Amino acid sequence: MAKKEKEINPLWGGRFESGTDDLAQSFSASIDIDKRLFEVDIQGSIAYAEILNVANLINSSELKKIKKGLNKILDEIKHDKFNWDPSLEDVHMNIEARLVKIAGTAAKKIHTGRSRNDQVATDLRLFLKNQIDEILNLTILLQKSLLKKADENTDTIMPGLTHLQIAQPVTFGHHLMAWFEMLSRDYSRLEDVKKRMDVMPLGSAAISGTRFNIDRKFLAKKLGFEKISRNSMDAVSDRDFVLELASSLSILGIHLSRICEEIIIWSSSQFSYIHLSDEVCTGSSIMPQKKNPDMAELIRGGASKTIANLMGLLSLMKNLPLTYNRDLQDDKEYIFSSLDFTKDSLELLSLIIEGMEPNIEKMKSDCFTGQITATDLADYLVEKGIAFRKAHEIVGKIVAHAEKKKVQIFELEISELRKFSKIINEDITNYLNPQKTILSRQQVGGTAPSQVKKEIKIAKKELIRKQS
Ligand code: ARG
């Protein structure tokens, strides 16, 4: 059977005698993924056309037609009236082909001195910079909800855990502020990524730069870029900015996952440290009593995607020779997936935190288990002049004695304690009561309510600074 005549791509088909095979065409089309870049692509083309005009490569009437056409396309896409054609491969060619239809010959000049290689690198940087801003704002939203809860719980005591075993009493506010700190680092990492991303590749053309008199610095200014790239070959093949963002998002992802893990543990009936709002839980189709922390579990599970996407991107890049290779087209699928997950998760986690109510009584009563103030007893001995190692050994023996009696060390009589060290006196009670011991952690970074209140104050100022 005779093969159907394939249509030749009008934007690059000059040297071709036949169109692309159907499978090759659908295999290489990226429009379903990269159409998200339409807004920055149009923004880039408008600025580029203005610069072409400055360089006398297009006249003012052509510029006018191009701008009008691009704005019309923007409107069509926003109102879902644009016909995306997979045979035109990607967002850049779809928009250019439509522009030619609207603006005619003028539109055929827009690609002067420009290649899709520098175009896509520019679009992606513009797009990701905006996305980073969105993520920074959502991070602040989550931090705000943490601050509010922490503020309400500076005096709520709970067991602090190491190895998931009861270790020392802490305040719930202090624990929440630990999460706040993790997110502050994510915030500053993303700011750093954005700084290095803020370089404009446009003007690099396909690989070697352009012969046309394009004012790259002016173009960068128009597009809001801080700097311009210094090497055209690097500029079209570099995707470090995608890798760095994916890496920062995977660190943020594991933070969200770890926070959710604790939320899941605390909301279990065995722990019962917190109560989650109905809004973020689901039931079981068979067990009528169930209320499951599914959203927290989906964030914990979904964070794997941020790690997988980073691995995908690293694998994609590792063997690529300079300069542009079509492999690079796949970068978007990975990074978009990480962005989508991160934005939804930050918002959802803020909702979880807002509706999360601590079970103050249960948290407190667990502080009276697990020989939780054993370290404070050792500290007491140290303050009375005993070397810490020796004190550790004495307290170890006291703990063993208490465990044998199935009591807590604070339940032992003073006379019993004195059998292990004559130094122990009545004043020991302040060191054994978890509610008293937390008050002593007054150093910067400590769990004492007064200290946590100070940190909350600093954190509030920090958020105000970030939002201004
Ligand atoms: N869709 C392509 C990408 O995202 C655009 C660049 C195509 N360049 C080329 N020389 N085929 O990477």
Largest sheet: 2 strands, antiparallel
Percentage of helical residues? 55-70%
N-to-C terminal Cα separation, in Å? 68 Å
Indicate the proportion of strand residues: under 5%
Account of the 3D structure:
The protein is mainly alpha-helical and 468 residues long. The protein has three domains: 13-112, Orthogonal Bundle (Fumarase C, Chain B, domain 1); 117-154 and 170-360, Fumarase C, Chain A, domain 2, CATH 1.20.200; 369-441, Orthogonal Bundle (Ribonucleotide Reductase Protein R1, domain 1). The protein contains 19 helices and six strands. The strands form three sheets. It has a two-stranded antiparallel ribbon. The protein has a two-stranded parallel sheet with strand order 3-4. A hairpin with a 2-residue loop joins strand 1 (157-162) and strand 2. It starts with 21 loop residues before the first helix and ends with a helix. The model has no long low-confidence stretch (mean pLDDT 96). Arginine (ARG) is lined by residues 30, 34, 90, 116-117, 120, 324, 326, 328-329. The site of arginine has 10 residues, from helix 6.
